[in-house]
## 1
Amino acid sequence: MAYDDYIRKRFFPHIWCPGCGHGIVLNALTRSLDSLGFDKNEMVMVSGIGCSARISGYVDLHSMHTIHGRALAFATGIKLSRPELKLIVPMGDGDALAIGGNHFIHAARRNIDITAIVINNRIYGMTGGQYSPLSGVGVRATTAPYSNIDPAFDVVEMATAAGATFVARTTTYHVREMSKFFQKAILHKGFSVVEVLSQCPTNFGRRNKAGDAVHMMESYKNGTVVAGSADDVPGSGKIRRGVFVEKTAPEYCDEYARIIRVARKGA
Amino acid sequence: MKNKTAFIQGNEVCARAAIYAGVGFFAGYPITPSTEIAEFMARELPKRQGTFIQMEDEISSLCAVIGASLTGCKAMTATSGPGFSLMQEALGYAVMAEIPCVIVDVQRGGPSTGLPTHVMQGDVCQARWGIHGDHAIVAMTASGNQELFKITVDAFNIAETYRTPVILLLDIPSEGEIEVVERLRTAVKQGVDFHPYLPREDGRLPMSDFGGVHRYNVTGLFHDMWGFPSDDPQVVHGLLRHLADKINNNVDNIARFKEYYLDDADLVLVSYGSSARSALHLVESRRRRGEKYGLLELQTLWPFPHSIVREKCANARYVAVVEMNLGQITKEVKEAVDRPERVYLLNRIDGVYITPTDIRNMLRVIQGRGV
Amino acid sequence: MMAKKQTKAKHVINREWCKGCGICVHFCPGNVLELDEWFKCFAARPDDCVGCRLCELRCPDFAIQVVVQSKQDQVA
Ligand SMILES: Cc1ncc(C[n+]2csc(CCOP(=O)(O)OP(=O)(O)O)c2C)c(N)n1
Ligand code: SF4
Ligand code: SF4
Ligand code: SF4
């Protein structure tokens, strides 16, 4: 199969703005799926609401476009009742960590075998540019016209603290790395999180003088560093990329299967 | 696109009116087509020492609004269908704890994510019965920007007067001297027992701000006159009666409506929100041809003004309700009038504004004249 | 002198899908690509292509594909 066998071509061109990072994430994801070679019928994609959440409509997998913030909760239901399915949940930063923050930490805590992709464009794209919990102090948004005072989460630290057993960060510039991380995350048994720094040229770039898609991707190239590399020195001011957590811990569906065995033995 | 501009205007009018009414706190979560209200508040409230916060979702938004109201400021939030659904639990809390606040629901096509940028009037019954448990509720609407300003101020006034949340249902997203009601605060002095939940003779309950001299309990459980949880059957009965009566006994005071050419009308259109504008357009063109059409435009939907509707429709041969849903208000109108078989529903449910031509065509059908 | 290029590449561009964002143009190491007057991508200097496929990997719109043929393929 070729990578573009994983998209639903009849819905193209897609709805995203020119240069939107969501398309690059979809592109890398289809290549990861192609390399992994799973049967399409074994894969389910669940998303919430937002520009990023529209990804689920474009992949030729079992796909579910749900309600804002709750994708992981829907996915938990699917995974628990059919543990053999592979679950991929792409989310915007608002979807994942504002309205969906609670579900995010609890899915991580349970270490349920789902791959969460947080596409972090630091803004609410779909509703026209309001600040998100990942915008960070000093950013301008339509609801922060005098500049934002809300500090941002660090997705990697938060996912780690909550119990995710695979945590990585990459950007839309680093496409080969992104594809590699997606593959590792999907193969990982347990809750895996990949944060992808991604550009929203329309609602973040313009308002914050960050330029167009090309400029924003240049900033990912120059403003990030591979964790553990020679350039990764404290105080570099650069955002660290890489796989930060990769460990094994009891997976939720396995644990539940064990409970079933225990319960049936008792019966 | 046309819908969107209308929304932006209406949202801004609503936001300006809220400022005029003295809103001091806004908490919300972005959602089309209501976001302009939040954006307006983010710009304007800090200039007036007011507070704006974008919360992590709609649940927390209404919770923050209720908290702010308890400190003594007029507080509001704005949302659309999915967010309004999330607010129902906190809305019930505001009813139970009798916290004045205003919740704006700029209606989109639903259910679920539905039609974010198109209009419908589908949340009318949700406004009435979205929260669990018996209760009375106030929900208002307007058909144009001018009335919207007045109705928004009225919403704050009714919230303060009856110590209740008020829902403002917008679908058009829509001057003179308008009275602004201030919160009724208790005159009870420090050190004297204050009963936050003991109604005065007129049914109103003076409040005391959190941070002030009276410390009292606020709860979503049934509670006594001190606000302390109680399941004493008498207390429960009394509180539920009070919560319903303070609204239902004031239907005529809370009702806002407009009437056009009703005196001699033999065909009365009943409508609200943007559909009322199309209805008025049709009524006026028919009047110019000498046909006796009239319009009753409802601005308060809940509590439903049954007696007003009965009276205004008493002499009509036909009553036609124009709305953009499957008949949420038609049902109430049938209940209000003496001869429900004369009441017809004229609707559109495809996310497109109902036009005077649509209404005319549907009327021809019910009058047996063909289209 | 050694031949400059090891590969011969064909650039398949879907003009219906290309939105002219310029990402492929800007990041191409061989400066192969340009946008035309309709803001659609085209291969202006295909012979300079090094076959890295980064344009294809970074295109948000699945609008460009690079078909790389090795020298041997060409002979055969
Ligand atoms: C309950 C509810 N509240 C609000 C919305 C409106 N809404 C749709 S998408 C969105 C946020 C989008 O931002 P993000 O999740 O970061 O994704 P992006 O669009 O940037 O990809 C919001 C607030 C909604 N659909 N449902
Ligand atoms: S608004 Fe931003 S996030 Fe949404 S499609 Fe456009 S560029 Fe992408
Ligand atoms: S990256 Fe893709 S969409 Fe952008 S200009 Fe190149 S071919 Fe067109
Ligand atoms: S394959 Fe590489 S060198 Fe060739 S056009 Fe694409 S980006 Fe340029």
## 2
Amino acid sequence: MSYVFNTGEALLALCENEQLPLHEVMLRRELELTDSSRAALREEMHKNLTVMRASIEEGLQAEYRSVSGLSGGDAQKLFSRASGTFMGADAARAVAAAMAVVEVNASMGKIVAAPTAGASGILPGTLLGLAEVRGWKDGSLIDALFAAAAVGVIIAANATLAGSEGGCQAETGSAAAMTAAALAHLSGAKPAVCLNAAAIALQNVLGLVCDPVAGLVECPCIKRNALGAANAMLSADLALSGVGSIIPFDETVDALRTVGRLLPSDLRETARGGLAATKTAKEITKRLGLSAQAE
Amino acid sequence: MQVFKTFDIIGPRMIGPSSSHTAGAARLAHLAWHIAGEDVKKARLTLYGSFAETGAGHGTDKALLAGVLGIEPEDTRLRFALLLAKEAGVEYEFLFEADAPGPYACMARIHIEGHTGQITDVLGASIGGGNIRITNINGLEVEYTGEYPTVLVQHLDMRGAISAVTGVLFAAGINVAGMRVFRQAKGQIACMMIETDTAVSDALCKQVRTCSDAVLDVRTIDKH
Ligand code: SF4
């Protein structure tokens, strides 16, 4: 019997037939694909969790500006007035934590790509931002990260996670989908509900373009991570309330792929379209002495 | 269909902002530092193509400089490279060239003068996801990714040179994982790049250096 799945349908079948939670199927898949032991896999994920936590703490201190000088300190601003926000203090702190990680990334700090450096704030920010109030311990957070990775491997195999290939929907959209599934998982939801949450998160940002100003992973990326965290919480809440995604997860991933292919290259990380092509963006690019384009 | 695994999705742990423009650049220069095999006195760092275009905003310059200072690619001191170079008394200059001297978008040439006066010149590319490829070492075309401990032997392209070197490694019980020989022209300077399963000690390195008159120089690089 093999635990290697590459679609949501196959993942749900494995969970159902074996009566296993999502993260357990993902762990068994990994054991099958690598020579690692269960303990080593969990330890490796724990190392990721440790760096994630440190990057949030560093970012919320707002000590550094980005290398370009374009950004920095915005996470701290939102964090400071979290209790006065429309979305509520807990959600605002999670969103601020997501922004903090990407600010750290832009200032040459250490982060965990999740799934990319550009979208690295959404998963750790949301999970760790809510961990304290929700009472989630490291063991369950590690389970949730494996559950998130299960969603990630399916999107990577059937569509893409790279902004340069599929636009920002593929990058911050996928991170939000992974996070939504992880949140549902942490709330004790069944695997099908987790995938519903992931599908809704992707559907909410289908078509989102990748248009980084001056080719730098800062504007709009930091705010797109803020949106991704909010999207993940909203999508998890919808799914947990019993709202269905109507279009199943796998078909949503197919749509992500086809929409990505339809996006012109100007809107896929080349910094030639969207916000990157605005008058202000051009002025910023000129001021920074940069001429666009980056990974 | 490509099969992705957990840590392809969540990971790597890296210094931002860009896996190609920061992490890859740091790794490239750090390998050049290993190849130089000594402390650096002067460094001339040339950024080509996309490195030249957007490198400044991604800290590519700092990442390259940190690498030649011997700072590990995952070290958070990367962002202070300019300051650390000044403190260490390392002279450096950055050059920016729009056209890359190879078929890659992100390339850099790392020209190092060591404290003994020895020159090391490394050209390489950042090929995405933090992965790199070194394409030229001291004027010799090579193809090197730094995934194994490696012995680099500069030698005269003479009969017997290769078997002398591999003989020494064999006698020491070192298993060769892969080996390639690059040469400019027949009978001239050539380079053996020997990837091994276990690291080669300094003592063994000296033995390789003296095993044949054809051997001109030996450097070792640890696995990355
Ligand atoms: S706009 Fe592009 S670079 Fe920025 S987060 Fe989105 S996909 Fe990444």
